[in-house]
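Subject: sequence -> structure tokens, single chain

Hey, anyone have a minute? Need the predicted structure for the following. Not urgent.
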Amino acid sequence: MIGLPLRLLAREVYDRLTTRVGERHVALITGEEKRVPAQPRYFVCTVEAMPINREVDFLAVDEIQLCAHPERGHVFTDRLLHARGREETWFLGSATIRPLLEQFVPTAKIASRPRLSVLRGMPTINLSRLPPRSAAIAFSTDRVYELASQLRHRRGGAAIVLGALSPRTRNAQVALYQSGEVDYMVATDAIGMGLNLSIDHIAFAGMTKFDGREERPLEMAELAQIAGRAGRYLNQGTFGTLSPLPAFAPNVVRAIEIHRFPPETQLFWRNSDLDFSTAESLLESLRIAPNTRGLKLMTSAADHQALSHILQKPGIRKYLSDSDCVELLWEICKVPDFRQLWFELHVQFLENVFLQLVGPKKQIDPDFITQRLRAIDDTRGDIQVLMDRIADIRTWTYVATHPSWLANAPALKEKAMSIEDRLSDALHERLVSQFVERTRTYSTRSPRHGVSSGTKPSSPFLVLLEQFAEKSAKTQTKPDSEWFETIIDGTHEKFASNAQGWIEFDGRRIAKFEAGPDLLHPNVKLAVSLEPGPGARSRLTRRLIAYGRDLAESVLLPLRARSASQLTPAARGLVYQLEQDLGTIHVDQAREQLELLTPRDVQLLTSFGVFFGMQLIYLRRSLSPTGLAARAALASVRDSLSEVLDHSALGAPSMQLDGSPPLPSMLSIGYFQLGALAIRVDQFETLWRDLMRLNQNGRVSIAPHMLTRLECTYEALDRALSQLGFQTHSKHRRSRRVRRPAAGDETTRAAATSNAVWGGYSRAARRSSG
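Reply:
Had a minute. Here:
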């Protein structure tokens, strides 16, 4: 489990992780979004949303220096003091917290990771001399818009990054910058966490910010957090100020360059053992002061302030007669004030929600929700109006994460997210219209930024599907950005793949599997042209790679049973070989492991659906129609199967190949190849048993039931058996193909599974099998 400081950063890490292991294993938990599969192995969360009551082997908290943050510090401090993994715990952050971390976690081992690139301070410059690939930093929305307007007139435009933007709008603005349509970005300190961009220079347009209570100078550590966005990995970066601001003092420049700042002296803390017996006891437990040096009581938290205000409302106290109602009120007070307009309006909203939840229906009135959603679902208006509506809808998205509060929470969540998407697209369009000169062309940049010269301009908020990759495509489809985002956010059920390795979404081919490190981890090649460039391409590629990981997981799911941890090393080695070949291996590949299997290993593996044949070992589940289709899609990267294989026959007991060269992929897709005939592995095991029974010094008779089971001609089977070294008796020769059973007739196809036997390998395994 990892806790991250921003919803946007959590989503980015989630996307990267699902690319590695698939979505079936990764949970995403934030205040506004919960994606929890049936058996997650990884949890990506915002720090506030971490389910720390759930035990995990490894736990990490990022940006742990935020323990000293005046608004959120108490949450990070609570994680520092109480959140632990069973095996290992990591706290990641600035060295400024090191003395206090050593005090409160004395057993921690501290390791430093130096910056790989060099960061250098520069003299102040004016806006007209701002170099390309720069970000101008301001600390108010008005100043951000002012700088962006100036850059539009002088340099063609700029992308905008504000903390109030939705993830969808922020990603679109970042893609606008990363693609090279604009060479400049104007941002607030929201750029300081979670964004890794190709920025060469950071220019500060201000050195003070309003922190919710007062206008104060930025601390050196805050300046360094933002300046560090310039130059990433091995790319050098610079920072400085924008005229008319004076240049940074030499000591400040030096401190940022070497990243050395005064240490934190205290962490914000709040009692986490709250008393819900009465409203007064809850307030009193929130006021308990720490008795340890280095901890400071948090008194300005938004939820605490909301509770204090709502308890002053007439008519509230009468509903707080039991601890359940007090705890419910506290949960409601935790709803964030996304709008940040007038605190009294937020308290009034919380009061309304509480009164409905303690009313006769014990849920929020659907009409109350419908009226508010209808008012928000409007894409008209200027930038600020749209940002206010996005803040409103985020409130309802957060409420939807509490299913007990609503009659139909999933429907509300889907509705709220749909509205947020429409508002986000409209906001991005307004930002582009106001701050980007649409007639300019792409810039020419060095290859490391990923954009070559001569690229034509395109709309940054429309994602175009120019054409299908297949030569046979007759038309071009150009869906808008909403269709593109539907792919990114779509469930795996909406994706499909075929035996040629094509990936489809709603019937449209959008990508094809390519060879990766192994069959379980294929790469993908997009079959569509995307705008606005690298941002869109990388997001879709990540999504489809995650689909590929889950496709492989669906085939091998039985081998992932919890009881697999009880297997001996030899059995685990056998499982590994099965995984690498998608569920089927030849006995000769695993002789060493088979000799070392224990009776318990055989029992467990059999319970997983592993079948031990005389020639082959295979996973029964992988031979289902969906399993074979998935295996063919994944194995298509190894051979050009489409040239020799009739994919419409996939799943049949046997298939006639167009040519007879040995193909490694045939066993991976569940078929044993004998020249031009490929026999499904379960049917091959049944055939082998018959051959052993009928063998007379290398000569066998082809019985009619063999042809019936395999659905092939006598000549095809005769040639296949010669590949095994058998000679057939000519008196049974017939030139006919046995009919294929009608659809749904599984009797014949199930014969191999019901009659196949295991010859046994090790002495212990033979005893276990009887």
